[in-house]
Amino acid sequence: MSKRKKRADKQRKVEITKGIFSVLEKNKNQPLNYKQIASKLGINDTGGRNLLIKRLGQLKAKEKIEEVERGKYRVIPSQNYYTGIVDITGRGNAYVICDDLENDVFIPSSLLSKALHGDEVEVYVFPRRRGSKRLEGEITKVINRKRTTFVGIVQMQKNFAFVVPGDFRMYTDIFVAKNKINNAEDGDKVLVEITDWPDKAESPYGKIIKVLGKPGEHQTEMHAILAEYGLPYEFPGDVEHFANQLDTSIQETEIKKRRDMRGITTFTIDPRDAKDFDDALSFQVLENGNYEIGIHIADVSHYVQPGSVLDDEAYNRATSVYLVDRVVPMLPEILSNNACSLRPHEEKYTFSALFEMDKNAGVINQWFGRTVTYSDQRFAYEEAQHIIENYHLSETEGALKVFSNDDERSAKVMIPEDLSITEKEYEVAPMVSLAILVLDDLAKKMRHRRMDAGAISFDKVEVKFRLNEENDPMGVYFKEAKDSNKLIEEFMLLANRKVAEFIGKQKKTFVYRVHDEPDDEKLIQLNGVISRFGYSVNLKSRKTITSSLNQLLEEVQGKKEQNLVDTLAIRSMSKAEYTTENIGHYGLAFDYYTHFTSPIRRYPDVMVHRLLQYYIDGGASAKEEEYQEKCRHSSQMESLAANAERDSVKYMQIKFMEDHKNQDFIGVISGVTEWGIYVEIIENKCEGMVRIRDIKDDYYVFDDQQYALVGEVTKSMYQLGDEVIVKVKNTDLIKRHLDFELLGKKEDVLV
């Protein structure tokens, strides 16, 4: 017998064996004879039937299957069933990720059993073949669909349509009957919902639930990004109506139930273009020389009551979504931009954390509760930064006074016209400018103490676009955190930490924001990459890890590899999440931490406000299971919102690069895969792909040990972190693909 014939026989034996298990698994409660099994497997030749009968006998002898009555077989219940999550690959095959298995289970496309990416499934793991390291199996049941709605393009036929999804992991198109097309036209981008998937149908059946518009149009693509993640872009009519009927006036009867802070110097510091101001700071000097600092947060829970349609909608959304050109708020505008926004010269209901602090930023006393406040002034970060950079404090005749850095005399604090949000030069009230300088000093001391305790300083550069009225990107700029940003950050961290500590020490159910320690393997991988730039992370202990990470992040500031190293360092960290089980926050080096300071845009903060007031009022510990489920949902929605935000930035990057097709760019290789390299342009942070098939000077293969593509003949290498010269090859706004043409390494091209 030839080797080819032997291989063919062996392959057929494997296929029939898998087929036997597959058929018997799908008919667990109905024993089948060999004719029924042969029919289901499509075996109709004598050789195949004989091989089937032989394998049934062998599997019975090995006690893999049992003969329950003469000639009828069923699979023996075994431990080979697992539950996991499907991860579809770009080639249509999949892996099932199971908590109970060390390795993922490979599933060929033919054995997916209509499972889709992200579904929770039951998987049967085949007995491991001799010499094989890979686990293989078959999906036997879809337990829960991850999603049933998809964004795609309509392909109209005479009496029906197909919707072709844009997500490459969705391996099938969706059949839509003529009466379920919802007025869509050929070529429209739509949101389609799967309604059924009959056993014998190749494609699932669906209905078009929303026409998003024509592909490539700006509004269509923004709405498509939201729809892909199941995120809404408008409020239901009943929710808007309910919110608009709320009494948002400030009532004397309600003020009497609160601590009145309206006479204390209070102000906000926010981005120049902010529309909702959910936090304010108050400041006063106490008779003993200490300071009383108030962190005042919009009292959203006063308006958003449990059980209302408004609360249900806020919970379902769980977060505001910040796309590149818009905010999709968690709450209707009447609350987010009006009643709950701490706008200047308006009285507002607030929930506050008050701290008596000494000059070393030590907390002497604390108080939490509901208040009413009045904001004296609104600052943009640039205005507050101007005060911090150009003025300083000095003690004169037993009192703190503000001095100009250019003059030894006490000075008026002026905001110049070019920085002013009023577009006119103006003088800042003395008490407000004093407050900003004192708070900056305290914030720096708190930050220094936090870093000494092992906090990690992730100040990643944020990419922003200058948009014209048509939402076309006219330019790119980078947003960096300065002292004024860090001032606000430190006091928000203080409030979040102290609220969590206050409840946590009472051992009552609470909503925590936790961050686990990084995975050792990810840190080792990080070290492997950054060693190419001459950096390293000391993995000896927690203290050496955090201190060397901070040193790394400081050393790369302003260098070409900064964004790459920052990104890789963040990826090496665990993901922060909401939970009722407190394990502390590794990145901030806090034993207790929560989110208390942004209830306008985060539902967990609303839960924290409610629980805090409930416990202040003497309530017993709340039901942990209920809050754990709410935490899980909030973490999930936060992840979806982050993905949508990233996709919108990617879309805008591609739109920006459309107008730069004939330009050469210097970039850094930011990713290496078996299908190509990702390159991030240094001057604008836009990232695109060079496909391996388009690199013509050699045949390149992927080396996963060196994070590189290596030429078979020349041994030329393109490695993570290399500087290269690229040119835009193709921009696809619909698929959100940016392809580059590789011109070569920087040192080879620029000679």
UniProtKB/TrEMBL annotation:
Residues covered by the S1 motif domain: 662-743
Any coiled-coil regions, as ranges: none
Gene3D superfamilies listed in its UniProt record: Nucleic acid-binding proteins
Keywords attached to this entry: Cytoplasm, Exonuclease, Hydrolase, Nuclease, RNA-binding
Subcellular location: Cytoplasm
Catalytic activity: Exonucleolytic cleavage in the 3'- to 5'-direction to yield nucleoside 5'-phosphates
Enzyme Commission number(s) of this protein: 3.1.13.1
InterPro entries (alphabetical): CSD, CSD2, NA-bd_OB-fold, RNase_B_OB_dom, RNase_II/R, RNase_II/R_CS, RNase_R, RNR_Ribonuclease
Pfam families: CSD2, OB_RNB, RNB, S1
Cited function: 3'-5' exoribonuclease that releases 5'-nucleoside monophosphates and is involved in maturation of structured RNAs.
Family affiliation: Belongs to the RNR ribonuclease family. RNase R subfamily.
Protein name: Ribonuclease R
Gene: rnr
